[in-house]
């Protein structure tokens, strides 16, 4: 497919925090932790009022905004397209979110383009950044300066400079038990965490199949807290159980993940990871659905799990996703794209 350019459960005996994101520059509220910690939505998901708009605002500004529905939609449309869109309020919300996340048969989504541009210039993507910051960063990398105007137009300009021949996409299959390496992006502590808090990690190594990029380094890995116990008597340390849910691909899309034998083997091999400690403590393995080993238990007195702590996870099932086929014209800038899969993979990825 070629696009043309147009105008499982892991129990952790550490303390975990899930702090709120800062307010927006214009002073509006930014309760974005819960909204941001959601995988890319698929067509037909989430029909609740305001969901599409809040999701779009999280992408554009870093979090849901405040105020009436109509002025919020108008502001988002003007910032992205330079004008308001026609149609009903529901149609406008849906069109905005589809443009950002889904794309069309002839055009990839804006997020797909941004991720490809970020990876082509820095070999890392920044899905946690607001849209304007991502575009500013790419422009600075390419031209040494930033411009103004509609974000969609600015994105098309940088894509034309990077990939004047357009973008290629390829369907790939990511096999079950493909191992991924993820790093915490915030220090976690029991004083601030609670059950059901959403936790976001960052993919520490890109996932590729020969010359097809499936998930860049920096892609988001999603987890949630299932149990919290503070330090107790007789020297018993704090306990936190964290379940891994999914990770985002460049598609965009998401793939379910957990902790199984392949991930635990990778943890044990890499003794510096938090997961390695978990996998090695007394064989205390937690059994998930159908008796599958999905995590391990750590107990101790350490009162925090620091930013950058590494965990290994694995895909829970075979997944067909759209990847970015790296064009020959940018391979001199990104090195050899023919890379092996992350440590611990049981089978190769097939295109």
Task: Outline the secondary-structure elements.
Blueprint: E1 2-3, E2 9-12, H1 32-36, H2 51-61, H3 69-81, H4 89-102, H5 110-122, H6 131-143, H7 151-162, E3 167-174, E4 179-184, E5 198-203, E6 207-209, E7 212-215, E8 220-229, E9 239-249, E10 253-258, H8 261-269, H9 274-280, E11 285-287, E12 293-296, E13 310-315, E14 319-325, H10 331-334
Antiparallel strand pairs: 1-3, 2-9, 3-14, 4-5, 4-13, 5-8, 6-7, 7-14, 8-9, 9-10, 10-13, 11-12
Helix pairs in contact: 2-3, 2-4, 3-4, 5-6, 5-7, 6-7, 8-9
Keywords:
351 residues, alpha+beta, Lipocalin, six-stranded antiparallel beta barrel, five-stranded antiparallel beta sheet, 10 helices, 14 strands, 29% helix
Q: Could you explain how this protein is built, in words?
A:
The chain has helices at residues 32-36, 51-61, 69-81, 89-102, 110-122, 131-143, 151-162, 261-269, 274-280, 331-334, and strands spanning 2-3, 9-12, 167-174, 179-184, 198-203, 207-209, 212-215, 220-229, 239-249, 253-258, 285-287, 293-296, 310-315, 319-325. It is α+β, with helices and mostly antiparallel strands. It has a domain at 172-334: Lipocalin, CATH 2.40.128. The radius of gyration is 21 Å and the shape is globular. 45% of the residues are buried.
| CATH class group of the domain at 172-334 | Mainly Beta
Sheet with the most strands: spatial strand order: 4-5-8-9-10-13
Task: List the uncertain runs.
Answer: 4-35, 40-47, 276-302, 332-348
- Return the average pLDDT rounded to an integer: 76
Portion of residues in helices?
25-40%
Strand content: 15-25%
């Amino acid at each position: 497919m070629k696009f043309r350019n147009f105008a499982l459960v892991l129990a952790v005996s550490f303390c975990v925090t899930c702090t709120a994101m800062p307010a927006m520059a214009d002073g509006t509220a930014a309760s974005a932790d819960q909204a941001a910690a959601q995988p890319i939505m698929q067509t037909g998901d989430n029909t609740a009022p305001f969901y599409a708009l809040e999701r779009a605002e999280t992408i554009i500004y870093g979090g849901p905004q405040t105020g009436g529905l109509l002025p919020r939609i108008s502001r988002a449309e003007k910032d992205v397209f330079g004008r308001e869109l026609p149609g009903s309020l529901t149609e406008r919300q849906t069109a905005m979110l589809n443009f950002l996340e889904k794309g069309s048969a002839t055009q990839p989504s804006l997020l797909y383009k941004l991720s490809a541009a970020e990876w082509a210039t820095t070999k890392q993507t920044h899905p946690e950044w607001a849209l304007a910051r991502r575009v500013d960063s790419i422009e600075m990398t390419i031209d040494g300066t930033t411009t103004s105007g509609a974000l969609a137009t600015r994105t098309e300009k940088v894509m034309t400079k990077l990939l004047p021949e357009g973008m290629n996409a390829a369907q790939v299959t990511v096999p079950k038990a493909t191992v991924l390496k993820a790093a915490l992006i915030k220090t976690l502590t029991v004083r601030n965490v609670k059950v059901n808090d959403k936790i976001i990690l960052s993919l520490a190594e890109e996932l590729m199949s020969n010359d097809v990029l499936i998930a860049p380094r920096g892609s988001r890995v999603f987890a949630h807290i299932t149990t919290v116990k503070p330090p107790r008597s007789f020297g018993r340390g704090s306990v936190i159980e964290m379940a891994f849910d999914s990770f985002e691909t460049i598609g965009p899309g998401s793939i379910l993940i957990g902790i199984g034998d392949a991930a635990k083997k990778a943890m044990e091999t890499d003794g510096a990871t938090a997961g390695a400690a978990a996998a090695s403590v007394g064989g205390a393995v937690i059994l998930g659905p159908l008796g599958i080993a999905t995590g391990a238990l750590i107990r101790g007195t350490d009162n925090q799990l620091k930013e950058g702590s590494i965990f290994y996870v694995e895909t829970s099932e075979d997944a067909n996703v759209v990847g970015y086929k790296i064009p020959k014209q940018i391979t001199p800038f990104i090195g050899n794209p023919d890379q092996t899969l992350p440590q611990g993979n049981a089978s190769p990825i097939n295109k």
